[in-house]
Amino acid sequence: MRENTNHWRMKKINATEQRIGGFCPLTPKEIGIFLRALGYPPSTLIYVAAGEIYGGDARLLELKSRFPNLIFKETIATQEEMKAFAHHSSQTAALDYIISIESDVFIPSHSGNMARAVEGHRRFLGHRKTITPDRKGLVNLFDILEAGQLREGSSLSYHVTQMHKNRQGAPRERGGSLPGIKGRARFRTEESFYENPYPECICSSKEH
Question: How far is CA 13 from CA 16, 26, 189, in A?
């Protein structure tokens, strides 16, 4: 049955194409480079809203070398407090969600369902600063950096800040479906309501 159903079939994924297209999450190292290029100092306190990191602590060290003040829910709660959430992954994810909503800045490494919901919630609460990485553009910069054609510093910082000056959670109307697409397919091309509930669920007048 699975093989005869288009959207259930096993898909062949080209990892290189996915990365170049900006569909892969940023790695801890890439997040570190990105944050430094945006101007965040090494003393910045960073809460990592995630479960088990792909690649484990070794990969996380690539971020910690740039930003040593990394914290997790396990480091700000006592063992006794965390016992209540043992074996309840949805509840521990809710802790990450709440902290992400209340943070000074939210920066998702990928565009998963939780990241989209957090972005939309922060917009609903007054368009709190949310920097959405342009992963496709960043991958190109990271490859140039890796090839030695660019160095971390003012030049990289300029490119990154210019790339993200309009990606910081400012009010904007939700993007519609792509032109020419009809039927159910159009829903897959329009911006998620949960990611951006403006204007339907956000009042634009102070009288409301």
Answer: 9, 18, 20
The length of the chain in residues reads 208
Residue position matching structure tokens 């043992």: 86
Residues 6+ apart with CB under 8 A from 95: 73, 77, 85
- Using N-to-C axis directions, what is the helix angle for 135-146 and 28-37, rounded to 10°? 90
Tracing tokens 């960073």 back to the chain, one arrives at 46
Q: Residue 10 is encoded by which pair of tokens?
A: 């096993």
User: Pick from 162, 181, 149, 152: which is nearest to 33 by CA?
Assistant: 152
**Cα–Cα distance measured from residue 193 to residue 183, given in angstroms and rounded to the nearest whole number:** 18
- How would you class 13 by CB atoms within 10 Å of its CB: exposed for 0-12, middle for 13-18, buried for 19 or more? exposed
CB 167 within 8 A of CB 132: yes
- What pLDDT, in 10s, does the model give residues 144-202? 999 999 999 999 999 999 999 999 999 998 887 777 777 777 777 788 888 999 888 87
Closest C-alpha among 23, 13, 36 to residue 136: 23
Q: Quote the pTM value.
A: 0.85
Quick one: 154 exposed, middle or buried, by C-beta within 10 A (0-12, 13-18, 19+)? exposed
